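Notes to self after the call with IL:
- keep both proteins in one doc
- input above output, always
- annotate only the second one for now

Protein 1:
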Amino acid sequence: IGLEILKDGKMCGSDIAKTRAPQATGISTLADFMTAARIEASGSVPKPLAVESPNFKVVFLRHGESVWNVANIFTGWADVDLSPAGEAEAVEAGKCLKEKGFKFDVVFTSMLRRSIRTAWTVCTYSENFAMPIVNTWRLNE
């Protein structure tokens, strides 16, 4: 694309400011992200995180199939639950993350039950029990 974004495998190239990456706005920590996104964790997010590391992995996971997905109805902000297939998808996602050795410091999810149930199920089946789960409407669809 003609931009220098990566430098030595890190997003710190001379053209990073031309992107929408968090690094372009000076966001480099979880606390900076939460402030910029106006997410209040009510003290549930450890400060600092238990393991300080310059390297983080961000895992994006979509909620499982909802009962309205089955009926081919657009859900948007409607607070509908997971279908049985959606529950099974969340179980499989959790098992996959466990197999790959993922351990989470914090989990963010929307305020919608399908997303919250997906997060709980994934965390249960990946054996991630001891981290805060932050629910915010800003992550609703």
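Protein 2 (the one to annotate):
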Amino acid sequence: GRNWATRGNVLRYSRFEGIRTREPTSLGSPAVQAIYLDDQMSGWEIYNNTIVDSVQGVLLGGGRHNHVKFNRFERCDTAVHFDSRGIGCFDAACYPLCAGGCGSARQLWGSVAANDTDLSTLGGSMVTLKPWATRYPALTTLVQDGSLGDPVYNEIVGN
């Protein structure tokens, strides 16, 4: 997670079955997911999968440009969970060292912007250059679009 530049990932035509905690653990019986996009993971196409007998079929922990479409859920406690983690982590009072645990741009962007110390300098990173900028133009205006941390441009349909 924590990387809005992870674009072009596809999970399709897969089957997940029996995704449950069957034995008690020291944590009790924690929720488990067949598909888990953690901490604002972005750019995933998840479609035409079958998930049977799962605590949670799909968990989207915020993120951008994730598309969850035409999946089949059977005997799942929750088919799709979608939350807004990340909201508020990029305002002037919080960023770059967010008290909420969001970390720095280097932690968020990893090797994509390894030389950037905060998102105000993202314009000089690799995501503004070819082939990134050509294939994923939304990344070039990420800082300017006014919704950093918000779970935007996601689609959950036909499930």
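Annotation: Helices lie at 105-109, 132-135. The longest strand covers residues 56-61.
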